[in-house]
Specification:
Strand content: 25-35%
Family: Belongs to the peptidase S1C family.
CATH topology of one domain: Thrombin, subunit H
Enzyme class: hydrolase
Distance between the termini: 127 Å
EC number: 3.4.21.-
Strand order of the largest sheet: 1-2-3-6-5-4
Pfam family, one: Trypsin_2
Largest sheet: 6 strands, antiparallel, barrel
Number of strands: 21
CATH superfamily of one domain: Trypsin-like serine proteases
Oligomer: single chain
GO molecular function: serine-type endopeptidase activity
Radius of gyration: 48 Å
């Protein structure tokens, strides 16, 4: 491109050479090369088959050869169409009935009846809950609420002592089916935190009682009750620890000692007195205490630390209350300090401040000043551990005791006894 100021007349083209027409832009052999000469005529050349030099026979059709019938092909097509139609109709019906469309509800008509409750195997958690729930009750006492469970067809119910503590002797009890009735206190044992009440109703569904000595850490459990007044509540967890010693009670009131089953099942206020149940539906504990970060009882809530009285202990205490009107308390026949560990050395254990003459400890050879470090293999931190573990056993039980006297470790067998009062 140029702006024209140095324009020059173009030079004429050089004369054409031989073999090419004048004015042709191609080289001398372009006329002989149809692929390079754009002015060459175009043609499509179809290669022909090689011609055979010998004679070729004409193909002859066999007049006797059988002709292929179309009947099998038509039959296959018909069967395939019928099968496809039947399968499509069946799948359409199944999808329609399961999704609730199609034949479920007609426009302007009444809906079909709701399906019955889903069935679960009896050994599933849902099956266990369905089995146990009719035996669980909600206990209402002067504005407070707790739980309990039926242990006899004629109306005896186990609950916590602290649930009925503020009662004037009567209370209201409701069942999982919504029915309610009155109940009266049969007896209480504040130190074990077990009470027995009796409802004014007969032919009740009774729980199955298990063996709390046969459970292990990691076993699945269900907690039943009415936490925060939410009746008919079930929560699931595992056994987190065994023989967890707990000292509880209000200042100036009754001090309660528990050698408890620890669980991480969600337990809150209102669960107290309800059953802790194993995977077979047997009661293994009575939900009683929770540990919380709350600053007061009204602020306490579940943090995965709940404690239940072993059912073997609760059953024994409840039977004493029903049979004798009060429970026998198991003792070792010695006084211990509960304010600290076992002595001035700071070592763990329960130091015996005094030993009762003729009592179980004295008969076993224990003396004042001895420090009990283990009972039946369970290590003791202080005197509260000893009290809680001793009360777990029935009177007349024989337990192995390891104790320290000075610098020497000794052992003894102690036959526990019932308190005289």
């Amino acid at each position: 491109m140029t702006d024209g100021w140095n324009w020059r007349q173009p030079q004429p083209p050089p004369p054409a050479t031989s073999g090419a027409p004048a004015g042709s832009p191609w080289w001398s052999d372009a006329l002989a090369d149809p692929w390079r000469d754009p002015y060459a005529p175009a043609a499509v050349v179809v290669p022909t088959a090689p011609v055979s030099t010998g004679p070729q026979p004409e193909p002859v059709a066999d007049p006797n050869a059988p002709r292929r019938s179309l009947a099998p092909i038509m039959l296959i097509c018909l069967v395939t169409a019928l099968l496809a139609g039947g399968l499509g109709g069946t799948l359409g019906y199944v999808f329609a009935t399961h999704s609730g469309v199609g034949g479920g509800t007609q426009l302007g008509g009444a809906p079909l009846a709701a399906p019955s409750a889903a069935q679960r195997p009896p050994d599933s958690m849902a099956g266990v809950a369905d089995q146990v729930m009719p035996s669980v009750v909600t206990v209402r006492v002067t504005g407070a609420i707790g739980s309990g469970f039926v242990v006899s067809p004629d109306g005896y119910v186990i609950t916590n002592d602290h649930v009925v503590e503020g009662s004037d002797g009567t209370m209201s009890v409701s069942f999982s089916d919504g029915s309610s009735t009155s109940a009266t206190v049969v007896g209480r044992d504040p130190e074990s935190d077990i009470a027995v009440i009796k409802v004014a109703k007969k032919n009740l569904t009774v729980v199955r009682l298990g063996d709390s000595d046969s459970i292990a850490v990691g076993d699945p459990v269900l907690a039943f009750g009415s936490p925060l007044a939410l009746v008919n509540t079930v929560t699931q967890g595992i056994v987190s620890a065994l023989d967890r010693t707990i000292q509880a009670g209000d200042p100036g009131g009754t001090v309660r000692y528990y050698a408890a089953i620890q669980t991480d099942a969600a337990v809150n206020q209102g669960n107290s007195g309800g059953p802790l149940v194993d995977a077979a539906g047997r009661v293994v504990g009575v939900n009683s205490v929770i540990r919380s970060v709350g600053g007061s009882d009204t602020e306490a809530g579940n943090i995965g630390l709940a404690f239940a009285i072993p059912i073997n202990q609760a059953k024994r205490v409840a039977k004493d209350i029903i049979d004798f009107g009060k429970a026998r308390r198991t003792v070792i026949g010695a006084e211990v300090s509960t304010s600290g560990a076992g002595g001035s050395t700071g070592a763990s254990g329960a130091r015996l401040r005094s030993v009762g003459q003729g009592g179980p400890a004295a008969i076993a050879g224990l003396k004042s000043g001895d420090v009990i470090t283990k009972i039946d293999g369970h290590p003791l931190e202080d005197g509260a551990d000893l009290i809680a573990l001793v009360r777990k056993y029935a009177p007349a039980s024989v337990v192995a005791v390891e104790y320290r006297r000075g610098t020497k470790i000794q052992t003894a067998s102690v036959t526990l006894a019932a308190d005289a009062k």
